[in-house]
Design a protein that fits this description.
single chain, alpha+beta, BirA Bifunctional Protein, domain 2, Rossmann fold, five-stranded mixed β-sheet, 23 strands
Length: 416
Amino acid sequence: MKQSELFYKTQKEAPKEAETISHQLLLRGGFVDQVTSGVYSFLPLGYKVQLNIAQIIREEMQAIGGQELFLPVLQPRNIWEQTDRWEHMDPPLFKLKDRHEKDLALGPTHEEVITQLVAKNINSYRDLPIYLFQIQTKFRNEMRSSGGLLRTREFLMKDLYSFHTDLEDFSQYYKKVANAYFKIFKRCGLSAIMVEASGLGFTNDFTHEFQVLTPAGEDTVIFCPKCKFARNKEIYELKEGDKCPKCSGILKLQRGIEVGNIFPLGEKYAKAFDLYFSDKDGNKKLVIMGCYGIGVGRLISTVIELNHDDKGIIWPKEVAPFKVHLVALDMENKKVKSFADKIYQDLQKLGTEVLYDDRLAVSAGQKLAESDLLGMPIRLLVSQKTIAKNKIELKYRNKKAEELISLSKIKSIVKI
């Protein structure tokens, strides 16, 4: 992509209402644009990041047997009444009427729709288990949106639903999803911990959140650095400095961002929609369900909160909108332009996602500052000085030092 053709605009200063680092950098870099409170447009750079994270999630869900589908945003009132959530959802549903005066809601989640769908399509234990997921827009009628993409009213979410014959089968898959989540977060450049949380009306058992520890977080987590014990502030009865109930280590208290959650749903929705199956003996039994969510926009913000410096974003390679930022200085010079154009063409032939700063009449200082702000993992710099040595300057965004390399090395570098 040539930067001269890219639809974006950077800002030197972020709006005053942008309090978190991620919100500031997303706005300054032209990744998103705020339409109204809690609602954002994703510009080309931001949308590429969203697509990359969605693809990471998709691959890991398919690796544990997930089948992707796509469910409707518009949902009729009657299915929400079957679960007693039409009037008692928190935050409340976005409700509307169609031209026939029928009540509809914009889906904040899809338990009702997916359970009704599966009830139409299974009969026997031979039809189970089933794992269905989607990456779909959700609507949450939040009282207050905050932190940019951390808490919004409209957002992209992966929700996976699993359907089982018994608790043992469910428990085994629950662990598989947890392991898949750790893989997703690692690929996004994050280290997450699994935290016990309340059932929130879904279940009497603990549910689990995946928290990335950072001062920018909205949640408070008590955890043990020595073992895997961790609980959300809503349910812990311990305090910082106490001994861990599992290993006798010393507990710590820290802020965190919730980047995912997994819920045992039990038989709650199966009962509401008559979701039964016949076992080997012909007995009719309720299906056991689980639900597993990841907010894509929230994950984008968390990546930035943990991967930035005072100059801008430092994108992990699998998340970055472009892997390479090719920056050409002195573009008015024909030799520089020809040299840079050739490298750009070669990178494209290699299948490398590259953003080429081919802009004229833009100072070297501005180009370099924007490159740091946008945060691609690899910067290749071409100038009169580098081509005089038949070299190109290489800089990794997460390192301070630059180095001059020969053109023959570019292929091996961009494949890393």
